Amino acid sequence: MKTFSSSKTSWLSKAGLLYVFLLCTTCVSAGKIISISDFGLKPDSRINAVPFVQKAINACKENPGATLVFPKGRYDFWAQHAIERDYYETNTYDVNPKILAVLLDRMDSLTIDGNGSEFIMHGRMQPFTLDHCRNITLKNFSVDWEIPLTAQGIVTQSTSGYLEIEIDSHQYPYIIENKRLTFVGEGWKSSLWAIMQFDPDTHLVLPNTGDNLGWRSYDATEVKPGLIRLSDPKKEADKFFPAPGTVLVLRHSTRDHAGIFIYHSMDTKLENVKLFHTCGLGILSQYSKNISFNDVHIIPNTSKKRVLSGHDDGFHFMGCSGLLKIENCSWAGLMDDPINIHGTCSRIMEVLSPTRIKCKFMQDMSEGMEWGRPDETIGFIEHKTMRTVATGKMNKFEALNKAEFIIELSAPLPAGVEAGYVIENLTCTPDAEIRNCHFGSCRARGLLVSTPGKVIIENCIFESSGSAILIAGDANAWYESGAVKDVLIRNNDFRYPCNSSNYQFCEAVISIVPEIPTLEQKFPYHRNIRITGNTFHLFDYPILFARSVDGLAFSGNTLIRDTTYQPCHYRKEGITLEACKAVVISNNKIIGNVLGKTVKFEKMKSSDIKINGNPFFKKSK
């Protein structure tokens, strides 16, 4: 009988152990598949999914790496049985507790796969909340509301004294209460307070309408079921009377719940997700790190003949860090900006000691948030010039009430910093990569970015009603912080709807508009912005507005005259520069009778601007 040597036996034993280890590792990494059907919930049953999903999530907690699967179909969520919890969500009104349809609390390594299912919400609620989670993936589902928190109608008659609007009362139930058009739903009612106008064929915001709100005061009467007359007995000057056939988005309600709330979480992925409606912000990421959205869309539900989608912003990032990666996404029909990336400034109200300062949230939709955490870096800003004069480290955050808090520093307050200065959290500042996205027609602007991290915006299509890209930053009004230091805008297509309505900060197709009360060229706020290789389809004059930038390049772009709309902006310059340094305008291709030929500059010298290979552009003070 042939025998193995001891060395061979040892090797085979080790090989066997390695095989078992690899096999086990593969099993663990694959994770357990858990079906919602195992808990008694069947698709298309129209029963409340909330308690079944809670049981399934508890099972997933016991199986890290699991995938919770929903067989394809419709699932309905009501507030009954939902967990209620207080959250202070940025840019959201303080309505607590939040009603949470699906709560993932301190979970690690979970995938929720909807397999193309529809998740239908009933009433005011937050569909998904991720609280202190890691490695969560949400994919393959859509979210909508049975009765949305925004309404829609079509103008049937328009005169100098009234409008008549046809409304689908099944999809948008309403009553007339004290002469107000009041929409009603499951556990809520709210009155019309603003109107947006959309083209019935293109579904674009009609040019030069924008925030022409009007109709805040009116008398409403029902002509017949589904037909409402809004009259103007006070003959107010700000009323507008859209033409018959115009689609109106009838704004009511308030922003009180996000669609998906990602809070203090890390390594979050969303894939193949559609949000057709939300009660407030679409996807709000707050104090979270490393977020990836691929094939995520906040768009109208065309099967319901809607032009409207989300109640407010699309993707909103506040105080995030790591990398924000947004690819192959789209937005249309929103009532605010598709993307907003920023931090939050707060004002120093009192210096309590060399290492303790009392601060205050100056914007009411920031109140209640945890502004910072130990060991995070603070920037101290002189708010009139917006200079960051010094930095420091935080030891402790102590909330006094929703608006005020005390910060304990690790070292004495830098010399000269006093009450009235503003603080910015410099640790919570992400990099961002935004690629292959479609910014469709929405109220307001397209992409707002205020972060000192590295930002790349490329291969996107912009059809925004206001400015396509806004780079702002302020410590005086919205208190949304984030001076940029490295922004590359390349190979994008800016189409003719861009900047066709004049909202706040919309000075050009690309607007770089920090709010600086005392503007001085020697203290530039933004740095290193390159706009290159893009195509602009321009019906109007303003192309680029830039304030307080050190290092601005506008080069290698193609500018094409478009005549779809008539010029309407009050600015008649192509490029306007205020208190900038090191500006280069070079080698831009001009096609057609592009209107904006003038480069206007203020609070800077002509020598601060280099124009190369572009006789089209002419400087003018």
Can you walk through the features of this model?
The chain has 621 residues and is mainly beta. The chain has two helices and 52 strands. It has a 22-stranded parallel sheet that branches. It has a 15-stranded mixed sheet that branches. A six-stranded antiparallel sheet has the order 14-17-9-10-16-15, with no helix packed on it. β28 and β29 form a beta hairpin. The longest helix is centred in the N-terminal third of the chain and has 25 residues. The protein is globular and about 70 Å long. It starts with 5 loop residues before the first helix and ends with a strand. The N terminus is likely disordered.
Task: Give the arrangement of secondary structure elements.
Elements: H1 6-30, E1 33-35, H2 50-61, E2 67-69, E3 74-77, E4 83-85, E5 98-105, E6 108-121, E7 126-131, E8 134-145, E9 151-158, E10 162-166, E11 174-177, E12 180-185, E13 188-191, E14 194-198, E15 219-224, E16 227-231, E17 247-251, E18 260-263, E19 266-275, E20 283-286, E21 289-298, E22 315-318, E23 321-327, E24 330-331, E25 339-344, E26 346-353, E27 356-360, E28 377-382, E29 387-399, E30 404-409, E31 422-425, E32 431-435, E33 438-439, E34 447-449, E35 454-458, E36 461-462, E37 469-471, E38 480-481, E39 486-490, E40 493-494, E41 510-512, E42 526-532, E43 535-538, E44 544-547, E45 549-555, E46 558-561, E47 575-578, E48 581-586, E49 589-591, E50 598-602, E51 609-612, E52 618-620
